[in-house]
TrEMBL record:
This protein's UniProt keywords: Cytoplasm, Iron, Metal-binding
Tagged with keyword Cytoplasm: yes
Protein name: Hemerythrin-like domain-containing protein
Residue ranges the record marks as coiled coil: none
TM annotation in the entry: none
GO cellular component: cytoplasm
Length: 240
């Protein structure tokens, strides 16, 4: 997903969702990852969210963080966001990358380089598969450790052996590692001049951007929300 056109004003619940997408087509991926199907006519963001069981404030927080390219959110807005809804969005994003985007990109990449140098093609195969394995580990940790921790937190279980700080300290930006693969293809792989390789390169650029914004939402929206929940629960336990 490319960064949407930079806006200086946020969308609100009364914005027509179809108009939003027609203006910022990259937000299609955001809507899909919230589990919202197409075919919503001229309904507003709030109407569509309510019809699909999606928290309106959470969707707007994600959309506005992307379209304004901000990296902060007010304490007041944080309190209006549903951690459960945001986790569902992040989990669907993981499913998209791991089960759809990266496997399809692998097939296109391997097809594009199969007629070139066997040695370089083998290097590209190994590099890509190693990268995908890293993405699986990165997102697997979140699915298996982080999100279950947050679900326990939301039930009032304050885990003294873990906190969001631990996740924050180890959260690497996996999208940056695609740069090496792009450099190999651009600088060292001699293609036949057809569209296959340039199309794959374009997909690598968009995947890199999509992963970057995915991590941005985790760092700048998800982490602050969970910190706020932790602090509230800890304060409640101290006064219990």
């Amino acid at each position: 997903m490319n960064p949407p056109t930079l806006l200086n004003h946020p969308f609100d619940a009364h914005t027509s969702l179809s108009k939003l997408i027609l203006t910022h087509y990259d937000l299609l991926m955001v809507i899909t990852r919230f589990g919202i199907p197409l075919g919503f006519g001229d309904k507003s963001v709030d109407e569509v969210c309510r019809a699909n069981g999606v928290d309106t404030n959470t969707l707007l927080a994600v959309v506005n963080m992307l379209t304004t390219q901000s990296d902060t959110i007010s304490e007041e807005l944080l309190q209006e966001i549903s951690a459960e809804s945001l986790i569902a969005y992040l989990q669907r994003s993981h499913h998209y990358f791991l089960d759809y985007k990266l496997p399809n990109l692998r097939g296109d990449l391997f097809t594009a380089v199969e007629e070139g140098s066997p040695e370089v093609a083998a290097l590209i195969h190994r590099f890509y598969d190693a990268y995908v394995e890293e993405v699986h580990k990165h997102m697997g940790y979140e699915d298996e450790v982080l999100f279950p921790y947050v679900h326990r937190l939301l039930k009032g279980d304050c885990d003294k052996g873990y906190s969001i700080d631990e996740f924050e300290s180890r959260h690497d930006h996996i999208e940056m590692k695609i740069t090496d693969l792009k450099n190999i293809l651009i600088k060292y792989y001699q293609s036949m001049g057809d569209y296959a390789l340039t199309n794959v390169l374009h997909e690598l650029f968009t995947t890199e951007s999509d992963l970057m914004w995915h991590n941005h939402i985790e760092d700048c929206l998800f982490v602050p929300i969970i910190k706020q929940i932790e602090e509230t629960l800890q304060a409640s336990n101290r006064h219990a």
